Amino acid sequence: FNNPYFDYEYTLAKPICFLSGEPINQEITFNLPPQEVAGIRNTKDRSVIAVLSKVIYENPKYIEMPDANDFSISMFLNHQPLTRYARKEIVLDSFIKEGKNALQIVSHKLPSKCVLALYYGKKVDIKEIAKRILKLETQQTFEEAKANFESIRFREFEVLAAFPLRDPITNKIMNFAARGSKCKHLQCFDLINFLKFYQSPTE
Fold first, then answer.
1. Which residues of the chain are under the pLDDT cut of 50?
2. Is pTM beyond 0.85 here?
3. Measured between alpha carbons, how far is 75 from 85 in angstroms, rounded to an integer?
4. Cβ distance 57 to 19 under 8 Å?
């Protein structure tokens, strides 16, 4: 599981593989003791997450996040319909109950093979996520960024560019400027606001 918002704790149900071209009407059951439900409802520091991923045949070890309309699948938790978004993780906290829970998956036909898994995870604080991102090997260190700037600055020509200080999401001054590792433009965004924005697709 590679979701920055949750730390995996344990699997609730054995992962299930669904084959392409076949109809689905399957129920997955799992049990939650009172202390686990309390972590979801009271302290709100735990979650139950369903992961739906498409399998790429060229590399069996690689699982691709499905596009928004890639799967025509309906899900029901304890007979309550779940809304799916353009992401592979679906948080099930709204309809969780103590004891036995039932997740039903329904589809007329799948365009490709996919895997569904359920796990119980601990929520990660937004600032902690930002710290982990900064520790990734792909991030440029301050010394590297400074050396790169100096190499441009003292050439025969000087590069001048406007650098917006406002976050494009909130239009507020950035406190934690960030940019995608593959981006070549100068425009940045505020990392904390970015993580908050994608933490809950319903907000």
1. 58, 66-69, 86, 202-203
2. no
3. 12
4. no
